[in-house]
């Protein structure tokens, strides 16, 4: 059973079927794309252990996992324990990696560097935030995709937006933290017997304007902070794995690097939503998606390549463009088969089709598509990215290209 049947779960559903498993695609929608290719479909809220348990029993499933989404990690752990199935995380550990309040409290207790923060209710008192310095970032403790996240410069602004933040949480308090000017990085890896193996460290490039805070537009490999920080990144990653109690499975950690050094933003224990299942094997030879599926199903996995890979020695150059588009109706699109012949392009995909109407950007769920692009040099990679955006179009009825142009982030 795969929790989630959206675009981010398609590769997982396809791979599981290729490995010979029958797949139950599960979410609360009836028309999710993953349900069109799965063997079976189940209608259940992936945030609800009771609903997922009901469907897991109905289909007598042998394993449960999710990719590309945070909260169902906890659901998978709870239901797997209930059914006696293998789970890479026990439910207590899963809570620690899916609830930012628990997560941040452990960071603080274990002296893992993170931003100053408090937990506040919707009707907070002024003295509850008096020790924090504006600007501040308010976020739900149990959501993702940059939903309900705002950067605020005053208490009045905070009070104006906090109800929106609470609309994306099931908790009675949200996280309020000091904004830290930074280069954000993403660490992807795998835990094995409590030891962390790093596979990639990318720059997580986001929109620059405050209204779209945290919404990612590209991942750039390797991070520009690699030379000065790779040792500290390794040390902090292992410290997190030990402090949280992560024994086995995928790692997806987000960190900030700024004037005060490295600080941990938040962590997850699932394959990321930036097509890591596609680009990680390309740069490392480690097929993390197949490993994840086989591991959950109780199969033996070959970890030798994981132990042999040294991320410090890799010299590949890669850009994962997670592009957006301006609002409007799509009348014509560049054929994807043509796009996949572009120089340096490893793979690409669209999240819309002709006739669709693209709404204004509010969060990461409105991403228009992606392109994984490589180059043998920085100059070649930049040219390949430019070629992609010069020749890839979502046209409206006026023949305007709606795609928002991307670039090699933090390199100009």
From TrEMBL:
- Keywords of this protein's UniProt record, alphabetized? ATP-binding, Ligase, Nucleotide-binding
Gene Ontology molecular functions: ATP binding; ligase activity; metal ion binding
Cellular component terms per the entry's GO annotation: cytosol
**Residue ranges annotated for the ATP-grasp domain, each copy included:** 104-297
Pfam families xrefs: ATP-grasp_4 (PF13535), LAL_C2 (PF18603)
Q: Does the keyword Protease apply?
A: no
Classify the source by domain of life. Answer: Bacteria
User: Which InterPro entries does the entry link to?
Assistant: ATP-grasp, ATP_grasp_subdomain_1, LAL_C2, PreATP-grasp_dom_sf
The protein's name in its UniProt record: Carboxylate--amine ligase
Q: Which organism is it from?
A: Anaeromicrobium sediminis
